[in-house]
Design a protein that fits this description.
331 residues, alpha/beta, 11 strands, globular, 18% strand, D-Maltodextrin-Binding Protein, domain 2, 45% helix
Length: 331
């Protein structure tokens, strides 16, 4: 039996034991030594690749246990991470920049591109055909979200609408279709699959989608504490994402069935054909796009001008590419 007072503390013993295990497993920690993850995700289509990852069995196969924290939109996941209630979560560039500014949040990969999933939709009975038609109208918007910020700060002004030219109604995206159906709002800035539901039910029609103004790359972000203490877990986690990408590419029907079940379990009625159309607007491709730097700089400058952040991030600190590089090397 080890005597803890015999020149070896418990910490020293655990460190030595870890070194032995690392040597035995070729210099890496064995799967059972990986850390658990508190996974945040949004229940709109942006979060569904993450939901699929958690249901795919790939994380369990890698030896990673997760507990999930579902919210209506990514900016809420970002707030949970700033409060250190969640370890990992997805959200678009503007929310990520705010999260880094407020809580040192770190981007470990861009998981997907979702500009086609966000649409400005108007009530079908009102016959809106362009953004300018929203002047003086009630527009449902997830205030504080990346899509919400892009609409108010970029898209609406590009069409001659400044704040005050329309009535912004603060609302979660999962409540917007019901509000449109009840005619309590005239339009909505919403994401899939809710847009597909509104269109299929004859409630709304698309005015414009965000891909015309922003590709909307979505980050997988981590708290700085998790990055520091769990680098091996991050690499194994991102390696599982590379497998998920293969499923989205080669087996889309399997992916669609898993995610479709999520929405039907919540009481949404959407046929599989309509759902697959909505899911196809999400482009899953983990990595760091070559044009990401200028894109993020532009958004940071907008947020700084709007006084939503205190300073432009140091991108080498905010975006850590080495974990994805290691995941690809070991894939």
């Amino acid at each position: 039996m080890t005597n803890w007072n015999d020149g070896m503390t418990r910490r020293h013993y655990l460190a030595a034991a870890g070194a032995v295990l690392a040597t035995a497993f070729g210099g890496t920690r064995p799967a059972f030594a990986l850390d658990p993850i508190r996974q945040g995700y949004q229940t709109n289509m942006w979060g569904m690749p993450t939901y699929y990852l958690m249901k795919s069995g790939l994380l369990e196969k890698a030896g990673i246990k997760t507990s999930d924290f579902a919210v209506p939109s990514g900016n809420l996941t970002m707030q949970q991470m700033v409060a250190r209630q969640v370890d990992l979560g997805t959200y678009a560039g503007p929310s990520f920049i705010i999260g880094h500014d407020k809580g040192g949040i770190v981007g470990v990969a861009v998981i997907e591109t979702v500009g086609k999933t966000i649409q400005v939709m108007g009530r079908k009975d009102l016959g809106f055909t362009k953004v300018e038609d929203l002047r003086g109208k009630k527009v449902a918007n997830q205030t504080g979200s990346s899509s919400g910020n892009i609409f108010t700060d970029q898209l609406a002004p590009a069409h001659g609408l400044k704040k005050g030219d329309y009535q912004e109604v603060r609302m979660n995206v999962n409540d917007m279709v019901a509000a449109m159906a009840a005619k309590t709002v005239d339009a909505m800035v919403c994401t899939e699959p809710y847009n597909a539901i509104a269109e299929a039910d004859g409630i709304g029609n698309t005015i414009v989608d965000f891909s015309k103004v922003d590709p909307l790359p979505v980050f997988m972000a981590a708290t700085p504490e998790f990055v520091q203490k769990s680098p091996d877990t991050l690499v194994a986690y991102l390696r599982a994402w590379l497998q998920v990408t293969k499923d989205f590419t080669s087996n889309p029907d399997k992916v669609a069935d898993v995610i479709h079940t999520f929405y039907t379990s919540k009481g949404y009625k959407i046929d599989r054909t309509t759902f697959r159309k909505a899911l196809a607007t999400v482009e899953v491709s983990p990595g760091f796009p070559s044009d990401l730097g200028p894109y993020m700089q532009k958004h940071a400058e907008i947020l700084l001008k709007e006084k939503k952040i205190a300073k432009i991030p140091d991108w080498k600190v905010a975006m850590r590419t080495e974990f994805m590089d290691k995941a690809r090397a070991g894939a």
